[in-house]
Amino acid sequence: MSVWTGRVDTADGPRALRWHQVIRPLAPDGMPGIALVGFACDEGVRRNGGRVGAKDGPRAIRQGLANLAFHQLRPVYDAGDVACPDGDLEAAQSRLALAVAAVVAGEHRCLVLGGGHETAWGTFQGVAAAHPDATVGVINIDAHFDLRADEPPNSGTPFRQIADWCRDHGRPFKYLCLGVSNPSNTSALGNRAADLGADWVHDTEFVPWLLDPAREAVAALAAGCDLIHLSIDLDVLPAAVMPAVSAPAALGVSLHAVEAVVHQVIATRKVAAADVVEFNPALDRDGNAARVAARVAWQVSAAWDARK
What we know:
single chain, 308 residues, nine-stranded parallel beta sheet
């Protein structure tokens, strides 16, 4: 909890609170709220040949959140970090799944701070474990499908792993990817997405003045599932806004569009867990990318709070 420090506006009274003043460690008897879980891991990025450093993302996002204004009614908790110090990604993902399952089973909303996009496989497993009879749909806001067939698994495989899990457990694979960049995805990935029955919206169709394709796709997926796992890969944002990721986007999707759709997804009241992934503080030259990452996490939490 030492990261949760910041400004205190004493003169402005009790309505001038910031995150660091209200967040508490998650306890078994805590009333339902929003709980943060960090996944301090970039082993999947290393395996994928990417730029490592996202393991330090959870702490940096917390630091960015600490001084932001707190407007919520729900309590917020910090459930600590799951780390991967030994390169055993699969074991770390299993520990993350246990942490997410415990948070969700405790009737909290779980916000996972990554880590590389390998985070998503652990998040999904946790939701599925907490609600074994539910159909869990996945909405991935991302420039990449992340459906690769690589072995061993890495940061480019989480949604293929989810597809495999759904097949092996006799469940429908409900997957929507918003912000897909054609230059960043091979034809093989597009064919696999089509073969798996996935839906997607390209970055060129996901713009603030034309949100209908994304909104319609979200509504369609939500109608066909019981719960939603929302995954937000920060590399969907333009490189000028979010350079501190392994694969910055040449075009990207504006933060305005991403936030609008995040609020729509959470307004379905079906989002059990969300993760915000790929932030790499080592690539953040002036600290602005940390502010963007923290804002995205803030928006997810605020949207949840508005949907009691």
